[in-house]
Design goal:
Keywords: Cell membrane, Membrane, Transmembrane, Transmembrane helix, Transport. There is one protein chain. The longest helix has 37 residues. It is built from 14 helices and no strands. Helix 3 packs antiparallel against helix 11, helix 6 runs parallel beside helix 12 and helix 11 runs antiparallel to helix 14. The radius of gyration is 24 Å and the shape is globular. It is mainly α and 307 residues long. 73% of the residues lie in helices and 0% in strands. The chain folds into 2 domains: 32 residues; 264 residues, MetI-like (MetI-like fold), CATH 1.10.3720.
Length: 307
């Protein structure tokens, strides 16, 4: 009887995890393995119908992808640089806005609950509905953005194109930050609840102002949460596909050509799934290396701070 009870106690967690593990296997692991196999094949439009018997290309797709002197490699490198700049700016602005709003709404005042609900609205909206709305706002002739900036304020000499040319990067960044920063706000606001109020009262009695309290109490207390938050925001923004796809369509402007859209074009527009799969594998490896390096660096910093 004791053996059965112990078996139930030990096996129950694995039994409860089994449905999630099966879904993870079917939804993520199996397609990932298939994608890795496809990256070693010459899988073009001529072989899609019988992709299992497509010619074996070994590392040929990877050589084409990383040959930065060739057109395919040069455009991929450009997309990588654009994606890095986009991700860094998105993460920084989302964290800054979310943290500032969360700290501001810690104080009790009339209308605080309403402001919290308003700030969370972009995060609650469906991505497609929100991005399509912004696509209309950024229209050159009938959009609200140009109406305010050009017609009302006169800040631009002419109506700029926001969904074409260099301005497309700014438009993409604005939309991404607008729909993502409420997540940072929500996480930081929840983390602030765990900071004892006595620390702020003692600091105020010692003559510490608001800025000093934030530097000495708030930010150090938020360090464990911020370490996870920054990593999640980076992975989300680096892999973002929905925002540029809905905003620009299948062909994003050169200034806003993120890796997700670039890989989509290589796979589903030019029908070169072998090269697209190779790009996806390289992207996965890059994110794994960045994630491992970030976790290693933050763990060492945490240990040194505790010591």
């Amino acid at each position: 009887m004791r053996g059965r009870a112990r078996l139930r106690r030990v096996g129950l967690p694995y039994l409860l995890l089994l449905p999630a593990l099966l879904l993870e296997l079917l939804v993520h692991l199996v397609p990932m393995v298939i994608g890795i196999v496809m990256s070693f094949k010459e899988l073009t439009q001529l072989h899609i119908a019988h992709w299992g018997t497509a010619p074996w290309k070994a590392l040929g797709n990877y050589r084409v992808t990383v040959d930065f002197d060739a057109p395919a490699g040069a455009t991929l490198l450009h997309s990588f640089v654009v994606t890095c700049a986009f991700s860094v700016l998105t993460v920084g602005l989302c964290w800054l806005l979310g943290t500032a709003a969360a700290i501001f709404l810690q104080e009790n005042f009339r209308g605080r609950g309403l402001l919290r609900a308003v700030f969370l609205t972009p995060y609650a909206l469906p991505v497609y509905a929100a991005v399509i709305t912004w696509a209309f706002l950024f229209q050159r002739d009938n959009g609200l953005v140009n109406h305010v900036l050009h017609d009302q304020l006169g800040l631009t000499g002419d109506r700029p194109f926001w969904l074409l040319g260099d301005n497309s990067f700014v438009a993409l960044l604005v939309v991404s930050v607008w729909k993502t920063w409420p997540f940072a706000f929500l996480v930081v606001m929840a983390a602030l609840q765990s900071i004892p109020k006595d620390l702020y009262e003692a600091a105020a009695l010692d003559g510490a102002g608001l800025i000093r309290q934030i530097r000495r109490i708030t930010l150090p207390s938020l360090r464990p949460i911020n370490q996870v938050l920054l990593l999640v925001l980076f992975l989300w923004s680096f892999n973002d596909f929905n925002t540029p796809y809905v905003l620009f369509g299948k062909a994003a402007p050169e200034a806003a050509d993120l890796l997700s859209i670039h890989i989509y074009q290589s796979s589903f527009v030019t029908w070169n799934f072998g090269t697209g799969s190779a790009m996806s594998v390289l992207l996965l490896l890059f994110l794994l290396v960045v994630t491992a390096g970030y976790l290693l660096a933050t763990s060492r910093g945490r240990k040194s701070a505790d010591a």
